[in-house]
Amino acid sequence: MSTKKTLILNKEQIKQKSLRIAYQIIEDNFDEPSFALVGIAERGYFFAQRLQKILQEIAPEKQIDLLKVSVVKNKRSLEAKTDQPIESVKNKVIILVDDVLNSGRTLAYGLGAFIDVPLKKMRTAVLIDRSHHKFPIFSDYYGLKLSTILKEHVEVVLEEFDNEEDAAYLI
């Protein structure tokens, strides 16, 4: 049985979507001198690094921190850790970043890592939102909203992580 891969975003389209997301983040946080991007390991963190780079180019006056949050997705209880002290985002705006939003479980677990930290505001950014939400988690900033059937899978390839040209496929 062959696996059919359908290209849904090419390298140039991913670049354009990333730039649009970055501008939306700046517009939504215009009055904030600083905020933090929190990338969900692994691809979400690499996507957050990209967004940070774009944001620093278009808004060099802003301080944009970057954190990585690692979550254990196959447990029924929250298990998440950050690569920096979680208190570093206290009273800040944070944007939780992942590559694909499917059921919302991963973003919910990522959000849970910050539940005891007072924040100004929390937003979510994803490259692709599949709209199969089981959790009340929605994307504030997204590159593409894609209606798929549950059996289909979205695979995002990021050059920095996969050593292949950027692309997103429907499988």
TrEMBL record:
Family matches, as Pfam families: Pribosyltran (PF00156)
Recorded superkingdom: Bacteria
Keyword terms, alphabetized: Glycosyltransferase, Transferase
GO MF annotation: an example: glycosyltransferase activity
Residue ranges of domain Phosphoribosyltransferase in the record: 8-147
Name of the protein described by the UniProt record: Phosphoribosyltransferase
Protein's organism: Sphingobacterium hungaricum
